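To fix ideas, we quote verbatim one protein's residues and fold tokens.
>
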Amino acid sequence: MKEKNKKGPRFDLTWIYVIIAAVLVYMFVSGNGGLFSSNSEDATYDEFKTYVERGYASKIEANKDKCVLEMRVVKGKESQVFKKQKKDNDLSNAYLTVSYPSNETLQSFIEEQQETGNFTGEISWHEDTKSIWYYLLSNLLPLVIIILIWLFFMGRLTGGKNNSGGGMGGIFNVGKSRAKLVDKDGADKVTFADVAGQASAKQEVQEIVEFLKNPKKYTELGGKIPKGALLVGPPGTGKTLLAKAVAGEADVPFFSMSGSDFVEMFVGVGASRVRDLFRQAKEKSPCIIFIDEIDAVGRARGKNPAMGGNDERESTLNQLLTEMDGFGTNSGVIILAATNRADILDKALLRAGRFDRQIHVDLPDLNERKEIFKVHLRPLRVDESLNLDFLARQTPGFSGADIANVCNEAALIAARHDKTAVTRDDFLAAVDRIIGGLEKKTKVMTVEEKKTIALHEAGHATISWHLQYANPLVKVTIVPRGRALGAAWYMPEERQINTKEQMLDEMCSLLGGRAAEELFTGHVSSGAMNDLERVTKQAYGMIVYMGMSEKLPNMCYYNNDEYSFTKPYSESTAQLIDEEVKKMIAEQYARAKAILADKREGHALLTQRLVDEEVIFAADVEAIFGKRPWTSRTEELLQEEKDSQKEEESKG
């Protein structure tokens, strides 16, 4: 039987790096021209006598205790003495190191050479006062310092104490898994009660919890426990939190790491970390492995045009595929992964037997947003009259992370105004701050610019008020926010499908600003650029993808191939598409101008009120144009909000 726990470090790729580095450091330190190499050269005593007799010696320093001398050479004679030194070295400070027989022998020889005139320099005698520790430190300390610096930087580059070895883990544990283990008895345990909304996703992962709690219930009938589940959805929808809740509900250990944790500068490290991760997981079975942002290593092979690290990433992915399909079917190890780019993942990773299920974690709907608001409002001191249904309708398309940000921003705004509780206005201001940016009341605008912006925004409001399927208006402002000079805020209806009439009404409403500028001033400005961009995209989507065109009915030219460089239609069809887009936009633009011309007086009153007050609400628009003939649940909610405000004012 193989021993499970072998003592001592294993020989792996890291040892090769250590050996190569040690050889390089030795060559760097000890070689000629190295960092600590000197200009000294050894010579025999006979060679020394020859050089002195020829008159090459300029100065001699003798050590009485060690019987070693250093001879300096007369200027101009260096090339005759130093034959081992490199030609490009500076020989002005070079000297010979010579061991002589005894002090008496050296002294008598020097006296003879002085009498004959061969040596006219000076000789100095000194005793060795340095201990053996000095020589050890002077010779070994530089090498030790270089090794320590190298170990420090290698530890930083490869994770240092973040690795499982700690301390020297950066060097000897570079191939170890960097997964964070959340123990089943840990204090940061998360359950489904902590995850608001996502009812359908929780229902799907509930089966995984049952597999881990009672696997025999399924295996006795011949079923196989799924090996993995992939959580797919936009950022901020709670994929990571849902995976932690699965581990918390199942009461099993939870290994968590990011896909980028497998990537390293050394070749072969990613595959080694994958092997080590699955080894640890098998030891703590049953357990869950969660890989966040798996697209960092799971991208489709052969389609990445990047050079250099591509082979390393692919080898890491190959090892991950092998491990997922290699361990026992009922071993109790389940892989959960999260990504918002499932379309770029390798097909081998998504096949049955690896990630058996794809669980879609979508943006929360209206009811789920209410539940999320309840969770994030717990620590806040909110006003009792706050309507959660209104807040949920005011935040369409917001993820759980966005809603958490709204609640935090509302609390900060309330504190900034010295309030004792967070009110409805604070939440609306927080939504405006997140969507549009910070108000810039100090931005300098001319009277003409302000009037043009008011005309533009009043055009949006007028058109949306008189179209059946346009989104109900909440407020209009000409106070600059972020890069926008003005904005109209709506409370959109959440629809599962959209009809052509609904989209055309929205398109006409978007064109209302540009139409008002041209109709009432005779010129157009750059303020409608964002509106035109949205209208153009929507028109192309309706014609190219949804088949809502008279000349191209029921045709969809959607191409899912990310790396295709050709259009899925001919040049003649492309020209026809362009003509249909121009026709659709022109029709809605003419429609917008016709409505504005018919409601000219009301639009003028709305524009003047915007110029005077800068911010107007749906009640102001209703006072000018009257009640809308079309009512929806959203408008009923707005009416309820207005009635409750009036009651509060009357009580006050």
